[in-house]
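chain below, 466 aa
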Amino acid sequence: MKKVQITETVLRDANQSLMATRLPYADYEAILPEMDKAGYYSVECWGGATFDSCLRYLNEDPWERLRGIRKHMPNTRLQMLLRGQNLLGYKHYHDDVVEKFVELSIKNGIDIIRIFDALNDFRNLGTALDATMKYATPKTIASGCISYTQSPVHTVEKYIEMCKELKKMGFKTICLKDMAGTMSPYEAENLIKGIKDAVGDMPLILHTHCTTGMAYMTVTKAIESGVDVIDCATSCFSNGTSQPATETMFYALQQYGIETGLNEDVINKVNDYFKPIKQKYIDSGRINPKSMATDAQALVYKVPGGMLSNMIANLTDMHAMDKFEAALEEIPVVRKDLGYPPLVTPLSQMVGNQAVTNVLLGERYKQISKEVKNYFRGEYGIAPAPVSQELQDKILGEGGKPIDCRIEDAKRTGEEFKAAKEALGDLARSEEDVMSYICFPDQAMKFFEARKAKEENICKYTIEEA
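prediction:
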């Protein structure tokens, strides 16, 4: 019997896409033991924007969150999304930082590390891959990930060559990450058949979103074409900018006689648990109706779910939602000027923020973000296509050229760890605390200071009561 397995995304990408990663651990801790019985291929629960969101918005230690999930789900593969040399932040980190982050991720409970680079510049995957293999347990899987998009330079032949390279590098599985849900059924068929012919029986995974309304058709055609694993979300957190529904795909695959390994009773219990949680965030306004809708215009804008929910949240906070449509229309212009990068973190934020800035200021590139300037300097890797010469001259000076090397080469000095420990002093209690500070210094410092103050107050009250 043919088998297609399912990764459940509700703990990471589903809520990242629908509510900008604002789902606290306390909301789902109680259902974790039940989820552990479901039979998922894996549960995506960490990485992406969860690390930043825990520290910045939820007053949570992301490492403690991971340890809690691991404790309650001992039998399920836990999966994270890692941005290669970019880790989970918004810049590239030195090799020793990347290696230590991977080591700590595995130590704290991660089994599958899905590693990608926003530009598909595979030089930025090597250190994370090597570290994953170095610290691997028997359950560890290094999954090479391709950021899928369409442009004049992104072709089926190009993607097939990328997959061959990922296999050659030593990855155990390959994931096609269709962040904006723009992959059509036709594209899925041609791409997956071509990849399968090129890499043989190497497991192939499809990650897509329902943003454009094509996901169910695309996933079905991908399954017919030989895909091995699909990413889905429990149905109340599915659709819109999220993934296809777990229960729906389970039911459809059952009718085709395709085995998924899922326990129907359990996945229904999981969905029942999350229904009131979703409703709570709809009622509070945290989940915006735009995130739950289908928008075929995303086929033009190529905007991924997480990027869309963050744009909505930011424009709402700035009382500028009247600029939403204009900002969307500006995104393809900025993307072309940047050489057609796939719109995935951190490039999605960089392109999206620059588009919003252009619209709010009423002038294109009147103000250019530090990140976009660094991109033109070559600090994120090689752009897929030539960038705007006019914009490059404006940023680098006439005739200026980006660096043409991997900027992290030979940078294993330990200076970042030393500086972080000195800055934190007695606020740091573990290597994980130091790593949090390196990734997000301002947010981590505020979190650790608040943690210390809270514990001192508890101690004070305990002594007074005694």
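Strands lie at 5-8, 42-47, 78-82, 112-115, 141-147, 173-177, 204-207, 229-232. The mean pLDDT is 92.
thats it, cya
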